[in-house]
């Protein structure tokens, strides 16, 4: 029964607040079947969690985010995976991705201020054995998060056309 599972996942990505009863109606299953599918998806580590997308600027959240390009030497027997896994364990790290191109890992970090992020990079990340170089880019303004526009949409900004 793969089709309803894919539909359930699409619906949850679009609106994580949907309840199993609502999902059941939308995909033509019973609530119990949906609950079992959700349990199995979690057990299989396909469905990892539910997140709200926040407009941090509107909340007055002054935390600092940075994207860090990291070039590393792959480890024998573990390649990039073991190294990336160790970096991802740090509480400052929001995401960590293996990339193609001029660097190996893209690490997104968050801190209370510039100094805290800079200290993480210089004292805990750049000094790890195997790190060849880092390049830190501080986020100045977010316009879209996880597919959600944070500011006014273009439709709201367009002037109406009069005849």
Describe this structure in words.
The protein has 163 residues and is α+β, with helices and mostly antiparallel strands. It folds into two domains: 42 residues; 81 residues, Alpha-Beta Plaits, CATH 3.30.70. It is 38% helix and 21% strand. The protein is built from seven helices and six strands; from the N terminus they run ααααβαββαβββα. The strands form two sheets. It has a four-stranded antiparallel sheet with strand order 2-3-1-4. The longest helix has 13 residues. It is extended, with a radius of gyration of 21 Å. The termini are far apart.
What count of structural domains?
A: 2
Radius of gyration from the CA trace?
21 Å
Instruction: Could you tell me the CATH topology label of the largest domain.
Output: Alpha-Beta Plaits
Sheet having the most strands: 4 strands, antiparallel
Count of strand segments: 6
Write the element-wise H/E pattern from the N-terminal end onward: HHHHEHEEHEEEH
